Amino acid sequence: MTNAAGEAGPSPAIARSPTRDSRRRTARRIVWTQGIRRSTLVGWLFVTPALVMYGLFVLQPLVLTVQYSLYRWDGVGPATWVGLSNYVAVLTEPKLLETLFNAFRLVLFFSLIPVTLGLVTASVIHRVARGRIGALSRTVLFLPQVIPLVAAGIIWGRLLSLPGLINQGLTAIGLGEITRAWLGDFDTALPAVGIIGIWVLLGFCTVLLLTGMTKIDAALYESARLDGAGWFQEFRAITISSLRYEIGVCITVTVIAALAAFDIVYVSTGGGPGGATAVPGIQIYILAFLERQVGLASALAVVLVILVLLVILPIQRLAREDAQ
Amino acid sequence: MRVARREAYAGWALLVALMAVTILPFVSIFTTALYPSGSAPVGLSWPADPQWGNFLEAFKVANMSALLFSSVLIVLAVVPVSLVISTMAGFAIGLLRIPGSRVLLLLFIFGLTLPFEGIITPLYFLARQIGILNTRLAIVLPLIGLFMPFAVFWMRAHFVNMPKEISEAARVDGASTWDLFWRIHVPLARPPIASLAILMSVWAWNQFLLALVLVEDPTQRTMAGALGAFQGHYATDIPLLCAGTILILLPTLVVFILFQRQVISALLQGSVKG
Amino acid sequence: MASTDFVRTAAASWRARLGTAAVVAILAGACAAPGAVPASPTSGASVAAASATAAAPSGSAAATTPSCGTDPVTMNAYFETGFDLPFKLSEEFTKQFPNVTWDIKQDQFTNLMSSTPRLLSGANPPDLIRLPSMVSLVKDGLLKNLDDYAAAFGWDKFPPAQLAQNRVATDGTRGSGSLYAMGLNYSLTGVFYNKKLAQQLGMTQPPATVTEFEGLLAKAKAANLLPIMQWNATASGGGLAFPLQNLMAAYGPTDPINDWIFQKAGATIDTPTNLTAAQHLQQWVEAGDFPKDANAIEYTDANARFGKGEGVFMFNGDWQNAVYDKDLAGNVGFFVFPPGEAGGKLAAMSAPLTYGIATKAKNADCAAFFFNWVATNDKARQIDVTVGGSNPGGPTDLAVPPAAAGSVTNETLAAGGNVAKDNGAMDFIANATGSIFAQGWTPELQKMVGGKQDAAGLLKAVQAEYEKELNR
Questions:
Q1: Among B35, B246, C44, C408, which is most exposed with the fewest C-beta within 10 angstroms?
Q2: Containing H/E element for C129?
Q3: For chain C, what are the domain ranges?
Q4: Which has the closest alpha carbon to A27: B171, C397, C233, C176?
């Protein structure tokens, strides 16, 4: 079918379709292949609404972002062409550059830890808790994934505050001297935001990896065990290698969540203290809507989009190659 | 697969611990929500005199009925439209395999990785230009557009696996493309459409950035957007804030518990396919 | 920022009060501060050109004073969420002028910052709108020039400093030029204190010098009390800027500070006296005079905790009076931050509650009439004090209406008079440029709390940010 469609190039198909239309209306029975050219046109009509919405509200703004990024504009008055200087600012001004570093620091928490811990948890469920406990833990761990991230931010904002539950727990176990406002302390604010991310994403990774594990042929494990493989060897040699694709997906989703983090940071720290948790999303928002530096905000947005692509594409490629 | 008892215990211990850590935050805001309004409860303890009325109070002060109405309206505007047009597009790309479908597919896939922040600034000015800023349309229209990459991709994945014979048989019986789509393939595609509907509803409900930037009035926003506003107004009354937070996340929790299997598998498949 | 939100709201509640571009003089009618700030030198030709073409009111211009007429008028108004004052004023106004009804939309102050240009230039320009900032709006021609009204209603007989803050010159500097906004009232900042706790420290009267104040801080510390409750979290912005600016004014003159805020050429915040001030602040931080979690405390949290008895002192403004009176009934006092040396001049940050009229407003006359009514009508002035907690301003021959007995408002009103006598009004250092607060003061003050910035570095960093922004 692909070949058939390929033969009939789009333009001739459109040009000829009216005649075909009229002819077809009279024909009582049509042969499947004859319908192809007409269905090319109709097919495009089927795609059009989705394409229009996508084009108008995603692609068009994307192009506009690039355009804005070349100007200095306050959103109201006239815009001034400034070439690439907004990009120079993004890549040289410490305050802006730092947001990119922070985004990568968040990857550690949003991606590395949930994926690693998710692998361990999934394999535990897979091995020891296949029944009800397994199902229950699946549901429970998944809960944070369905609530609004804003709610996660609010809940954890309370837990991590000076009089919050975390500090109470620490005091109770004799660690009173390390208590602090975790989200307000320079050294701990970013990890604290990261912990919220772990909480949200762990269940997702666990359940996704678990689904992958159930597809692994049990015979693989049996034979490994016959060869005297221990838990870790088994885990590494069979589980990990069979799950490359799922792991790739987990990493992709969580890395995007980290690089494009907004809701959690906005609600829990607003980017502070002193920019310690400022991520690109927050800075774009502040620049565009608080400081009315639309051009600079847009340049940062473009850099963010490109960064996400640069990070995701190799992961995708690796995961897909290995999986096939 | 048999495992040593010791390993089983260690595994269960880990699971129980993880579940506890996951649940504890929910429990803590729940108990906090039951303390007298205006008090500053700390930690995890059951109040001496639980104030169930806090939920009612939060429902009132947060103008919850208006928020629910607004969120439902947004979901009802976004989801059906998105379902129809993405199913049509998925059908054309995956089943009709129209010329250019590979390029189209790549175009949509590109959108899968796009952070919303990447386009939020122009969206604001676009909405302002077409005069929908501060109306629900300002959330609805962009959200439909932003859902397209995933939704089209999702539906295409379904249609691409449909056996060709079904379509051929229908064609032989003289079905038009529309008939083929509407009478034959849409009924067959019910499961993925249902999953997609659940997914998009949850995502729309939880959408924050668009609501934050494009609509100022909380009663015209999504639930997540309204929650941000609610926190602003009641930041000092912690029990009330917690009660409001619970009320706001309750609908998604209920949907999740009811449609657990679908939601989980939808989310997972969604990401795997993506 | 386009919406009502937590981050914004938290900041909004106080930014709304000090957020506007303003040189301020407190104009206690009772004390009738004579020319608190020199009358704006508006004689420049450029200024005259700036005022609307027909600006120069000839002697007969006031033949018919603008009013709301007698036909039904619906005022299209944008007020700020969370503050009752304008709503109460509009209710009272309708009571007195039944032909005027109100179509009021409301929004958080910070949201107004982003939406105001759109509202003013939109299809239905507001007759009355809370202004978060003025200069760019004036530049874009979106705000009505009020010079004619000022002449017609005789606002030029108000103490000049009262209007100076709402003037914008053609070169975009504030403080002189044509009038583009009016204040509904005039707020004052200073130090609130918990009377019971202060008594415990043996404080019988407000400290007369910074040294005395610092003595009290030490006593509080020794008594295991939190000396100062203050917010410093990102969303609300660095509340430590309040004590910092007070210290600056205690150790140096206010003029250079205002110059810096008004972007006068060559102005710098990095001066020797400001360094002394910042060093004192750093000492306070290091001594633990602020809460340990200050960087995580939002404005609302700080007030709630102060209201529950945590902290002997708190730097804030009179917009919070009503809340303090409720939380700490009869137990809250106020004083203006003391000078560096006994008998020195008092100084305080202060700002008008600024409202403007859209250039294309349909009912501009009625809005101007409303401004005049707010400043001069007895009932309106009373509402200003009871609901708003601040000085109503207006002509010097009108007395400031009394506040409820035992209310802290009495103390803030009296203090305002003293500041006016000393000509000690300042605009807020957070208002110098659009982002100096978010990008300069707040992060640097947070770093100071986190032990990552010292006094000298703080001023240098902020000055660098200031220059960068001006060169943009």
A1: C44
A2: strand C128-130
A3: 6-187+352-414, 189-349+427-470
A4: B171
Give the helix/strand (H/E) hosting C101: strand C100-107
How far does the CA of residue A86 sit from the closest CA of chain C (Å)?
11
pLDDT for res A20: 42
- Superfamily of segment(s) B64-231: MetI-like (1.10.3720.10)
Fold match flag (C6-187+352-414 vs C189-349+427-470): yes
Asked if pLDDT for residue C258 goes beyond 80, the answer is: yes
Q: Which two tokens mark C393? A: 């301003």
Return the residue of B nearest to C106 by Cα: B217
What is the number of other CB atoms lying within 10 angstroms of the CB of residue C46?
11
Rounded to two decimals, the ipTM of the complex is 0.89
CA pair distance C139, A78, nearest whole angstrom: 11
Distance CA B235, CA C351 (A): 25
Asked if C428 and C261 count as a contact pair (C-beta separation under 8 A), the reply is: yes
Q: What is the average per-residue pLDDT within C308-324? A: 90
pLDDT digits (tens, 9 = 90+) for A219-262: 887 888 788 777 777 778 888 888 888 898 899 989 999 999 99
**In this predicted structure, what is the pLDDT of residue C42?**
35
Q: What is the mean pLDDT of residues B95-103?
A: 86
**Tokens representing residue A299 in the block:** 């340049």
Those of residues 20-79 in A touching chain C at CB distance below 8 A are: 72, 74-77
**Do C293 and A77 lie within an 8 Å CB cutoff?**
no
- CB contact under 8 Å between B228 and C6, yes or no, is yes
The full length of chain A comes to: 324
B146 touches chain C (CB under 8 A): no
Contact B104 A54 (CB under 8 A): no
C92: left (phi over 0), alpha (psi -120 to 50) or beta: alpha
Tell which CATH classification among 3.40.190.10, 2.60.220.30, 3.30.1330.60, 3.20.20.70 matches the domain C6-187+352-414: 3.40.190.10
